[in-house]
Write a structure and sequence with these properties.
The structure holds two protein chains of two kinds. Chain A is α+β, with helices and mostly antiparallel strands. Chain A contains eight helices and 14 strands. Chain B has 19 helices and eight strands. In chain B, a hairpin with a 5-residue loop joins strand 7 and strand 8. Chain B is globular, with a radius of gyration of 29 Å. Classes of the chains: A alpha+beta, B mainly alpha.
Chain lengths: ~350, ~550
C-alpha cells in the first residue's frame, strides 16, 4: 500500500512528507512548553575543591591497589588452598574451599578494578555535556546520483542485461548451488526405517534387574513393589555398541496389581490380566509424550507419574493417561514365566514405545 | 559529530605524533579513521547499560569457555570413572561427563571456570532479554534502527540455542533428559521429524554422535555467528548514534552526553570489571549445575523436580500445560500435544516480536527517523501489548515449575496446571487492559502536573475556611520533558464516497490499518498549548 491511499492528517504538522521531515517542534516565542535548552553546568565538589579531588584520587588509587592485592591473593590461594578441602556454610551449603577462595579473591579484585575506573570517571573526568549533531541516515542526492550512476556503469560493463543466456544460466546455477550443501549431509544418520517400532524384547527374553543383571523371579514382585527391568540380551557383548540406544527403548517397569484393582471394560481387563503373570505386569518406562522415563509410582492408586511434564498413567487401567500432555497409554509388555520361575517376555511390544512420530500411525 | 572540513594546507604542519601511532597511520589511516570516534558523545541513562551487561558477560563466557575446552572431551565413548569424586568411582559414563567431573574436581580453578561460564551464560541471556524489553518499551526500534533490532533479535535466538547446547554438553542426567525431550519434540514435526531426529543424533537417540556435533556447534558455529552479529550490532550503534531521552537541549537532531574518550572508556571498561566481579563472586559462593549430584545420563533414569536452565523454562511450561491432543490422520500421527507448545507457540511469540517494528510502522505510517525515546506511558497500546507478552511468557515460565510450586506450597499439580491453562489466555488480556489504563492514567497525571503544577502537600486554609492544596509550578525543563513527545492522532478514513459518488480508494487493508490506528492512539491524552495559556490567563484559580 502506498502512502497516497491515506491522509497524513494523523501525523503531527511538522511532517514534511514521508521519509523526511524534522521532529523538532517550531517553538513560538510565547510557547509555554518550549525547550529551555541545556541547563547551566553545575560543578561537582571535585571540580571546585582541590582537597576533594585529591581525596577522590586517593580513593581510586586505593581501589586499584585492592585489585592488585586480590589478583595476587588469587594466585596464592590457587597454590595453597587444597582443591579437595570443603567447608559448609549456612545458606550456601557445602563449598569447595579452593573454588571459594578463588571466587572471592578474583571477584573482589574485579569489583575494585571496575569500581576504581568508574569512580575516576565520575569524580575526576569531565562532566560537561557535549552536543553533537545528528545527520539523516539517508544519503545526499549527489551521493545517491553518483552511486546509481556508478552501479549502472558496472551493470552495462557486465552485459548482464545484454546476454540473457548468461543471466538465466547463472541464476539457475545459483539456485542449484545450495542443494549439494544439503545433499552432502546425507550420511549424518541412517534412515529410520522401522527401528522405532522394535525393541530388544522378544519371545523368551528374560527380564533382568539393571543393577544386578540377575533375572527377575515372579516371587520377587509383591503388590506395591516397583521394579525396573531390561532384556537380558541388552548386556550381551553384541549389544555393547548400541547399548544406550536400545536401553532408551527397552526399559520397562514391573509392578504387581491385584486382579480386583483392574479397571476398564471386561475385554481390556482380561487382556491386561492375560499379559501379566498373576498380576505381575511390565509397562514401558518411556513416556509416550516426549520420552522421559516415567518414575514416580503411587502405590495406593497405581498411578505412574512422569517427572518431566506430569503426564500421569493409571497402570490399573491399561496404562491409560489420566492427566497431563501425553496422548497415549504406556504400552504393556506381554510377559510369562519360564520353567525356572524367571519372568520372560512373550513377545516384543505390540506397538512402538516412546514419543509419537509421523510414521507411527 | 562535528563536521570536519579539511584543514587549510600547512595549518597543522608541525603536528606531533607518537611513533607507534604514526607507524600505524601510515599503514591504516589511523588518524583519519578515528578522529571523530575518539570524542564521540554517548548519552547517559541506566537503561543503556543493559546491553553492556550482555556484551561483557559474553566476553566472560568466551574467556571461561576457552579455559574449559582445554580439558573437556566431547565424546560419548563409555569409560569407567576413577577420579577424585569417590561416590561415582567405577561408574560407567561418557567421556564428556567424566571430563566434566575432572574439570570440577581435579583441575584447579576448573570448577570456578565452569561456574563462571554457567553464571555468565544465565546473566547473558537475561541481559539480552531485558535489553530487548528496554528497546521495545521505549520505541528504540523505530526507524532507522529496525535492522539493528532484527540483529538483536537474531542474537537472542542464537543465545538461547547456544545456552541450551552448552547446558547439554556435560552429558549429565539432567541435561540428557533435556536432550531426550528435544528429540521427542523433533520427532513430532510432521513428515520430516523422524528423519531429522535420525540425522541429528546419527541414528537412534541418543547414539554416539550428538555430543561431538553439539560441541562444534557450541564452540565454533554459534559463537562465530554471535561475534559477527555483535560486531555489526555495535558498529550500527556507532553509525546511527545512540538514542536519548527528550529533555532540555536534547532534541531529535542532536546527541547530548559525555565523550567516549575518556569518560565512557573508563565507565564501560569499569562496568565490564564490575560484571566480571559479580560473576566471579557468584561462581565462588553459589554452586550452579552440580553435575556430579545428577550423575551420568542414562535414558532409563530420572530425578523428580527436573528443571532446565531458566531461559528454557517457558518451553517446558508450554509443554506441561498443553492438553493431550494427538490426531491420527490417514495413518499418520500428528502430535499437537508436542508440536503446538514447543514449536508453534514460541514460533508465534518470536515472529511477532521480530515483526513488531514493521507492524507498528505500518499502523502509524510514520517513516521519519526517531532518536528520542518514548516514555512507555506515552505509547499506551504498545506498552500494553508488551506487558501482555511478558505476562504470556511469564505464565509459560511459571508453568514450567508447576511440580516445584506444587511440592513447595502443597498444592495439587493438576489444579495448578489448570490454573495456568486459564491464565495463559486470561493473563495477557487482563495485563493488557490494566497496563493501558495505568499508562493513560499516568498521561493524565503528567497533564495535570504540566497545567497545574506539582502537589506540594501543603494545605492552605483561607479566611472563608476553604481548604486548598498549594500547587508548585514545574520548572520549564520539567514542563518541556513532559510535553516534548508528539501525541499521535489516530488515522481517520475519509467518507466512503466523495461528493461525486466515487468510492474512496483503498482496500480492506486500509480499513484494518485505520482500526489498528484507532485502537492504538484514539485515547491518548494531549496537553495543548492553548490549555496551558488559558490557565495562565486565569492564573490563581484551579
Amino acid at each position: 500500500m502506498s502512502d497516497r491511499d491515506m491522509s497524513t492528517d494523523h501525523l503531527p504538522e511538522s511532517v514534511g512528507g514521508a521519509g523526511h521531515g524534522t521532529l523538532t517542534k517550531e517553538a513560538a516565542a510565547d510557547d509555554p512548553f518550549q525547550d529551555p535548552g541545556l541547563p547551566a553546568y553545575r560543578p561537582r565538589v571535585t571540580d571546585i575543591d582541590p582537597k576533594a579531588a585529591k581525596r577522590a584520587e586517593r580513593q581510586v588509587a586505593l581501589l586499584f591497589l585492592i585489585a592488585i592485592a586480590g589478583l595476587i591473593a588469587s594466585m596464592v590461594c590457587f597454590t595453597v588452598v587444597p582443591n579437595t578441602k570443603v567447608g559448609t556454610f549456612t545458606g550456601l551449603g557445602t563449598l569447595n574451599m579452593n573454588n571459594l577462595a578463588l571466587g572471592l579473591c578474583l571477584g573482589f579484585a574485579f569489583l575494585a578494578l571496575g569500581g576504581g575506573a568508574i569512580h575516576w570517571a565520575r569524580t575526576l573526568m569531565t562532566d560537561v555535556d557535549l552536543v553533537q549533531e545528528r545527520h539523516p541516515m539517508e544519503s545526499d542526492t549527489a551521493f545517491k546520483a553518483e552511486a546509481v550512476s556508478e552501479w549502472k556503469k558496472g551493470v552495462a560493463d557486465s552485459g548482464f542485461a545484454k546476454y540473457p543466456l548468461i543471466r538465466r544460466s547463472l541464476l539457475t546455477a545459483m539456485l542449484v548451488l545450495p542443494l549439494p550443501a544439503v545433499w552432502l549431509l546425507r550420511d549424518l544418520g541412517p534412515m529410520p526405517k522401522d527401528k522405532l517400532r522394535h525393541t530388544l524384547w522378544s519371545e523368551g527374553q528374560k527380564l533382568v534387574n539393571p543393577n544386578t543383571k540377575q533375572p527377575l523371579k515372579a516371587e520377587d514382585i509383591t503388590v506395591g513393589t516397583l521394579a525396573l527391568a531390561n532384556p537380558e540380551v541388552l548386556y550381551s557383548p553384541a549389544e555393547k555398541e548400541e547399548f544406550i540406544d536400545q536401553l532408551a527403548k527397552a526399559a520397562v517397569l514391573v509392578v504387581r496389581l491385584p486382579q480386583e484393582a483392574l479397571k476398564g471394560s471386561a475385554a481390556q481387563k482380561k487382556k491386561q490380566w492375560d499379559w501379566s503373570v498373576d498380576g505381575i505386569m511390565a509397562f514401558s518406562k518411556i513416556c509416550t509424550h516426549v520420552g522421559c522415563p516415567v518414575a514416580l509410582y503411587e502405590q495406593q492408586t497405581h498411578h505412574m507419574l512422569c517427572p518431566c511434564h506430569q503426564s500421569t498413567f493409571d497402570l490399573s487401567d491399561n496404562g491409560r493417561v489420566i492427566f497431563g500432555p501425553a496422548a497415549r497409554s504406556l504400552p504393556q509388555l506381554h510377559i510369562r514365566v519360564d520353567p525356572d520361575g524367571n519372568l520372560v517376555a512373550a513377545s516384543d511390544f505390540q506397538e512402538p514405545v516412546g514419543p509419537s512420530y509421523w510414521e507411527r500411525g | 559529530m562535528s563536521a570536519t572540513a579539511a584543514p587549510p594546507d600547512g595549518a597543522f604542519e608541525d603536528v606531533k605524533t607518537d611513533p607507534v601511532s604514526q607507524w600505524a597511520d601510515e599503514r591504516l589511516s589511523l588518524y583519519k579513521g578515528t578522529r571523530t570516534l575518539i570524542r564521540k558523545v554517548f548519552p547517559d541513562h541506566w537503561s543503556f547499560l543493559l546491553g553492556e551487561i550482555a556484551l561483557f558477560s559474553f566476553i566472560l563466557i568466551l574467556l571461561s569457555g576457552t579455559f574449559l575446552t582445554l580439558w573437556f572431551k566431547p565424546s560419548m565413548a563409555e569409560v569407567e570413572y576413577h577420579g577424585s569424586y569417590y561416590p561415582l568411582n567405577g561408574v560407567s559414563m561418557s567421556e564428556a561427563f567424566a571430563s566434566t567431573l575432572n574439570i570440577s574436581f581435579d583441575v584447579r580453578a576448573g570448577l570456578l571456570m565452569r561456574q563462571v561460564h554457567h553464571w555468565a551464560a544465565l546473566i547473558f541471556i537475561m541481559a539480552i532479554m531485558v535489553h530487548m524489553l528496554r528497546i521495545f518499551f521505549t520505541g528504540a526500534f523505530r526507524k532507522p534502527r529496525e535492522i539493528n533490532f532484527l540483529i538483536g533479535f537474531t542474537l537472542l535466538i542464537l543465545a538461547l540455542l547456544e545456552g541450551f547446547a552448552g547446558y547439554s554438553l556435560p552429558d549429565d542426567l539432567l541435561s540428557g533428559t533435556g536432550l531426550r525431550i528435544a528429540s521427542g519434540v523433533v520427532l513430532s514435526i510432521p513428515i520430516v521429524g523422524t528423519y531429522l531426529s535420525y540425522f541429528l543424533f546419527g541414528g537412534d537417540f541418543p547414539g554416539h554422535d550428538f555430543i561431538p556435533r553439539l560441541f562444534t556447534i557450541h564452540v565454533l558455529l554459534i559463537p562465530a555467528l554471535i561475534v559477527g552479529l555483535l560486531t555489526v550490532h555495535l558498529i550500527l550503534v556507532f553509525v546511527q548514534k545512540h538514542t536519548q531521552w527528550a529533555g532540555p537541549g536534547k532534541t531529535n537532531e542532536n546527541v547530548v552526553g559525555l565523550p567516549f574518550m575518556p569518560v565512557y572508556m573508563a565507565k564501560a571498561g569499569g562496568f565490564m570489571f564490575v560484571i566480571f566481579g559479580v560473576t566471579f563472586l557468584l561462581a565462588g559462593l553459589v554452586q550452579i549445575n552440580p553435575i556430579w549430584a545428577y550423575g551420568p545420563y542414562t535414558p532409563d533414569q530420572i530425578s523428580a523436580g527436573s528443571q532446565p536452565d531458566w531461559y528454557i523454562g517457558f518451553l517446558e511450561g508450554s509443554l506441561r500445560m498443553m492438553p493431550n491432543w494427538e490426531w491420527n490422520l490417514w495413518g499418520h500421527t500428528v502430535s499437537f500435544n508436542v508440536l503446538i507448545p514447543s514449536l508453534i507457540v514460541p514460533g508465534i511469540l518470536f515472529t511477532g516480536l521480530a515483526l513488531w517494528p514493521f507492524l507498528e510502522q505500518w499502523v502509524t505510517g510514520d517513516k521519519r527517523e526517531h532518536h528520542l525515546l518514548d516514555r512507555p506511558r506515552n505509547r499506551p497500546t504498545r506498552t500494553a501489548i508488551g506487558v501482555a507478552g511478558i505476562t504470556f511468557y511469564g505464565v509459560l515460565w511459571l508453568a514450567g515449575g508447576n511440580d516445584l510450586i506444587a511440592t513447595h506450597f502443597h498444592l495439587s499439580v493438576e489444579a495448578l496446571t489448570w490454573t495456568f491453562r486459564v491464565l495463559v489466555f486470561a493473563g495477557p488480556v487482563i495485563a493488557f487492559w490494566c497496563t493501558k489504563r495505568i499508562a493513560l492514567g499516568l498521561q493524565r497525571r503528567d497533564k495535570d502536573k504540566v497545567l497545574h503544577g506539582r502537589e506540594t502537600g501543603i494545605i492552605k486554609v483561607s479566611l472563608d475556611g476553604e481548604f486548598t492544596e498549594v500547587h508548585q509550578p514545574l520548572s520549564q525543563a520539567e514542563v518541556y520533558r513532559l510535553t516534548a513527545h508528539e501525541v499521535q492522532k489516530p488515522l481517520e478514513l475519509g467518507p466512503a464516497t466523495d461528493e461525486n459518488g466515487i468510492p474512496r480508494p483503498g482496500s480492506r487493508a486500509l480499513k484494518l490499518r485505520a482500526k489498528a490506528s484507532q485502537l492504538m492512539f484514539s485515547d491518548n491524552v494531549e496537553t495543548t498549548v492553548d490549555e496551558a495559556k488559558e490557565i495562565e490567563a486565569g492564573h490563581g484559580h484551579h
